[in-house]
Design goal:
It is a single chain. The protein has 6 helices and no strands. It is mostly helical and about 170 residues long. It is elongated and about 65 Å long. It has one domain (about 1-165). The relative contact order is 0.18. The N and C termini lie close together (about 10 Å). The longest helix is centred in the C-terminal third of the chain and has 44 residues, at about 125-165.
Length: about 170
């Protein structure tokens, strides 16, 4: 059973890394589930501190990933209307995944742009705010990727330390 849990855990780690780039897949939480499965094996010592800290990081990354595009819009001169537009765009990207994987990029961009236009901003200001939303998305993606790689490193290090026990047939 330990071998099965380890293999499934590793698959979750790989899907988590992919999820850092694919918005429809929650990368950090899936990577954390991979860690959890590894720590549920009888061969690996329970380390609830590692699991607790990595769970907090995974939840934090999910929350921050939604906030960064909004902050990017504000940083690049967007108004409250632009930030609201970015938020609406993020919500639309999950409700109506019309553009597929690129919807998470396109909808917040469009939302920020439309929000600024509604706020009577000129096209240049609206585009600048929308670009801030895009940079926020890129920053969030990078953050998710780093966390997924760190979780993969913890998984590999822990597995490597206990591999003889996991693959023993006692």
């Amino acid at each position: 059973m330990d071998i099965v849990l380890t293999i499934i855990g590793f698959i979750f780690i790989l899907i988590g890394i992919l999820g850092s780039f694919l918005p429809v897949i929650p990368g950090a939480p899936l990577s954390w589930l991979g860690l959890l499965l590894l720590y549920l094996t009888k061969a690996v010592e329970d380390n609830w501190w590692v699991l607790g800290i990595t769970l907090a990081v995974a939840i934090g990354v999910v929350v921050v990933d939604y906030l960064i595009p909004i902050a990017g819009t504000k940083r690049f001169g967007g108004s409250k209307s632009g930030m609201i537009g970015t938020t609406v765009g993020l919500i639309i990207s999950f409700i109506f995944p019309i553009f597929g994987l690129f919807g998470i990029i396109i909808w917040p961009f469009i939302g920020a742009f439309v929000g600024e236009i509604i706020n009577k901003a000129d096209n240049k200001t609206a585009l600048k705010a929308a670009f801030g939303s895009f940079l926020g998305f890129i920053t969030g993606t990078f953050l998710k990727f780093v966390v997924a790689i760190v979780f993969a490193g913890i998984f590999i290090r822990t597995f490597w330390r206990y591999k003889a026990l996991i693959f023993s047939f006692e």
